[in-house]
Design a protein that fits this description.
InterPro entries: CheY-like_superfamily (IPR011006), OmpR/PhoB-type_DNA-bd (IPR001867), Sig_transdc_resp-reg_C-effctor (IPR016032), Sig_transdc_resp-reg_receiver (IPR001789), WalR-like (IPR039420), WH-like_DNA-bd_sf (IPR036388). Keywords: DNA-binding, Phosphoprotein, Transcription, Transcription regulation, Two-component regulatory system. It is built from nine helices and 13 strands. The strands form three sheets. Strands 2-1-3-4-5 form a five-stranded parallel β-sheet, sandwiched between helices. A hairpin with a 4-residue loop joins strand 7 and strand 8. It is of the alpha/beta class and 236 residues long. 42% of the residues lie in helices and 22% in strands. The longest helix is centred in the middle third of the chain and has 16 residues.
């Protein structure tokens, strides 16, 4: 099995060492950075499968580091924040983060989330993913094997979680899902601190796939319940 390489960026030395210790117990290879600038340099020099970013770091903070990383890669990014303000969480997700955890956190829950993200991310390269068909809907084409989405023949740049969310919707057209169901299916976790993770990802996804995000025709809101993907699934 290919070695999984993780980057941990946090200005707290004790947290860096704790995360490195527990993640290495899971046989992951772990590099650490004390600030966002160092994290970006390491990312340029190495190939990572997942990044853990602290929100408040010197030189380059987690939000800016996330924004820059997302411009280059769709690897899962998990934000760590000591703040309990909704704005910080939403901002991190809006910059392309796939998930977040608020400090202080359970190290066992964090490891579980990392493992869940890795299962979701790496399965795209497995034989199971390679056997899945193209999924077409109107102007959209979702190529699971190539981890790519096009609209009217033009490529759309999606993060790992945006892709997984769209794929899940498209594989289950016309079915209504609550935010909790979507979180557990796409993030593969029983932990849901609030609705922001799902809501922000749906809002970002709509801006990329809808003709008019303010009047979505594909990912529709079912008031009081959740969301559904409108239309039939076509496979090629």
């Amino acid at each position: 099995m290919k070695e999984i390489h993780i980057l941990v960026a946090d200005d707290d030395k004790e947290i860096r060492e704790l995360l490195k210790k527990y993640l290495e117990r899971e046989t992951y290879k772990v590099d650490t950075a004390a600030d966002g600038e160092e994290a970006l340099l390491l990312f340029e020099r190495n190939s990572y499968n997942l990044v853990l970013l602290d929100l408040m770091m010197p030189k380059v903070d987690g939000i800016e580091a996330c924004r820059r990383l997302r411009m280059k890669s769709n690897v899962p990014i998990l934000m760590l924040t000591a703040k309990d303000q909704e704005l910080d969480k939403v901002l991190g997700l809006s910059m392309g983060a796939d998930d977040y955890m608020t400090k202080p956190f359970s190290i066992h829950e964090l490891v579980a989330r990392v493992k869940a993200h890795m299962r979701r991310y790496l399965v795209l390269g497995s034989e199971q993913a390679a056997e899945e068909p193209l999924i077409r809907h109107r102007s959209l084409c979702i190529d699971v094997k190539k981890y790519a989405v096009t609209k009217n023949g033009e490529g759309i740049n999606l993060t790992a979680k945006e892709f997984e969310l769209l794929k899940f919707f498209a594989m289950n057209p016309e079915q209504v899902f609550t935010k909790t169901q979507l979180f557990r299916q796409v993030w593969d976790s029983a932990y849901l601190e609030d609705d922001n993770t799902v809501m922000v990802h749906i809002r970002k996804l709509r801006t990329k796939i809808e003709d008019d995000p303010s009047d979505p025709k594909l990912i529709q809101t079912v008031w009081g319940i959740g969301y559904r993907f409108a239309g039939e699934k076509h496979e090629a």
